[in-house]
Design a protein that fits this description.
Elements: no helix or strand
């Protein structure tokens, strides 16, 4: 029997509902500006290098 954590199509099991989050601004920065204007904001959007492995033992040795 397949476990939920082994199925990449099952997401958000046991997670909290979506909520607001806040991005801090440093002194001197405009706190009412868009969040991407903060010097402490890092966007994770973009192209990622991703590989799927069937299990932990399928991951190359140099990655473990």
């Amino acid at each position: 029997m397949e476990q939920y954590h082994e199925n990449p199509h099952i997401l958000h099991v046991g997670t909290e509902e979506v909520c607001n989050y806040y991005i801090p601004f440093a002194k001197g920065e405009d706190p009412f500006a868009e969040r991407s204007c903060s010097g402490r904001f890092i966007s994770l959007n973009g192209v990622w290098d991703f590989q799927f492995y069937e299990g932990a033992y399928a991951v190359p040795e140099h990655w473990r």
